[in-house]
Amino acid sequence: MKSFFDFKINENINRVKYNNLYYYDNNFYFLTTDKNIILKSVKLLGGPEHSDQINKEEYIFIPKIKIFDTEEELNNFINKDIIIINGITNYFSHYYEHNIGHGLYDAIYPSFLTLLDFFNKDDIYTNLINILHVPGWKCPLNCSRNWILNIMSKFSKNNNLIKNNLEKDKIYKFEILIAGSGYAGISSINKNGIMPGKELLALEKFRDRFYEVYNITKKIKNLNSINIIIVDSDRYSESDKEILLKINEELKKNYNCNYIYWKDYINFKDQIELLNNTDIYISACGTSMNNFPFLNNNSILINLGTNKSGDKNIKQLMEVNMCLLSNNLLIDYYDIFQENDYNYDKILKLINKNINLYKGIENNIIFKPILPNYIKIWQELFIDNENEFKDKNNLDELILRMNKDLKPDLVPYRYPEILIQNYKIDTVTKEFLNEKNKLYLEKIKNKYNKLLY
After folding, report:
1. pLDDT of 363
2. H/E run at residue 46
3. How far is residue 258's CA from residue 230's CA, in Å, rounded to a whole number?
4. What's the maximum distance between 2 C-alpha atoms anywhere in the chain?
5. What's the rounded Cα separation, in Å, for the pair 340 and 418?
6. What is residue 98's predicted lDDT score, i.e. its pLDDT?
């Protein structure tokens, strides 16, 4: 059977669906009698590759074209023992064995968006995983790649097929193969400042599918018993942790509040169950926060932010692009930009404000993320129509650098708040913006009193 394809572009993301795609001799082949066929490449990795040691060609997907003069000649070619992979196969790359956040949102979520582009949110499919290895890298922790791979398999409702393990002397035929994760992950940056999939309610569908495959029934809200968790994070200083533990004790007087460590929840289902029963989730940004999509409808996330980025003092809220992807969670933020450090009274005041909002569910309070001013500034800088005050080419180049599509790249400093705050990074050899766009950015910023709200 000859091959067919359907190519789509949604939210500037290239995706493809192949029917009757073949794999042998370590390559995918598109078999056809059409001498004019042209295929386009898609990216398999949801975010930029951070190590700078993996060849980009390893996660760019475009089959080779094999042309036959007649369909009879094509059918004779494949008239052999072939391993047929029936149904839908979802092809993507993965290389974070140590980080569940990247596994969930740079691998599973982008591949789920690909499914939504071509099929139904509930469909069963096979993961075809292209596992990337960073040469010489060893996880500094007690890592298990299988832990994340098992979650991937559970989510697909089927088995994983590891592309690296396909037998070299066999011919495989994929009945349907879909691909196109590039720029859909949490680590990617776009001009909107929000991860793709918001209008599709993709984050909610993602959560609901996890609830389904782990057989979790959504909790019914009880305003007389509010459950709060404060999540431990490696980003906290000793004084930060002291403040949060003290806040935890204060909240315990009136609410079911617990200071938790994700390492105590080894079973992923237990983590989702905890979030299903959580009404208010409080955390620094980063991996400790990134289970918030599993919160039930009309719950609250408070992103405390951080004033550290590696060895640099940089005030950030970080994964706000995923916070804003939600459609039915109230997401609020501690003003780390103004306060610089954690402050007991101000954090407690923020929490109490949100507890009162939560109690107002019955008054038809609309639960949605707060859009920070700095994201509004980012959107106006990048999305606003071309005008004489800005240099579009320089802005397009900046997005490419943040996504590691152009050197010198800015992957470690890709968060919009770093640009908006005009940080000077000593390791960045080429500035973020040229002089024209710097002036334009300041003009936009003058409209707002604060970076947050």
Report:
1. 67
2. none
3. 6
4. 79
5. 14
6. 65
DSSP symbols for 417-453: HHHHTT---TT-SS-SS-HHHHHHHHHHHTT-S-S--
Confidence bin at 392 (pLDDT 50/70/90): very high
Q: What is the dihedral of CA 377, 382, 383, 389, to 10 degrees?
A: 90
DSSP states of 188-233: ---TTSS-TTTTTTHHHHHHHHHHHHTT-PPPPP-TTS-EEEEE--
Residue 352 has pLDDT above 70, yes or no: yes
Q: How far apart are CA 341 and CA 238, in angstroms?
A: 12
Residues above pLDDT 90, as percent of the chain:
85
What is the 3-state secondary structure of 276-305? HCCCEEEECCCHHHCCHHHCCCCCEEEECC
Q: Which residue has the tokens 């994964």?
A: 319
Sign of CA dihedral 226, 230, 231, 235: positive
Tell me the sheet residues that pair with 127.
90, 160
Task: Name the one residue in this structure whose structure tokens are 């009879």.
Answer: 72
Judge whether 417 and 337 are in contact, CB under 8 Å.
yes
Higher pLDDT, 172 or 80: 172
pLDDT band at 142 (very low <50, low <70, confident <90, very high): low
Beta bridge partners of 83: 172
What number is the average pLDDT over the span 312-340? 96
* Residue 176 CB neighbour total at 10 angstroms: 20
CA gap 108, 320 in Å, rounded: 19
Whether the bond between 408 and the residue before it is cis, its omega within 30 degrees of 0, is yes
Pair 381, 443: CB distance under 8 Å = no
Q: Give CA–CA dist 39/283, Å, rounded.
A: 45
What is the DSSP secondary-structure string of 125-162? EEEEEEE---TT---SS---HHHHHHHHHHHHTS-EEE
Domains of the chain: 4-188 (no CATH), 227-363 (3.40.50.2300), 373-445 (no CATH)
CB 420 within 8 A of CB 320: no
Q: What is the pTM of this model?
A: 0.96
Q: Which of 226, 164, 415, 150 minimizes the C-alpha distance to 303? A: 415
Q: Identify the pLDDT of residue 86.
A: 98
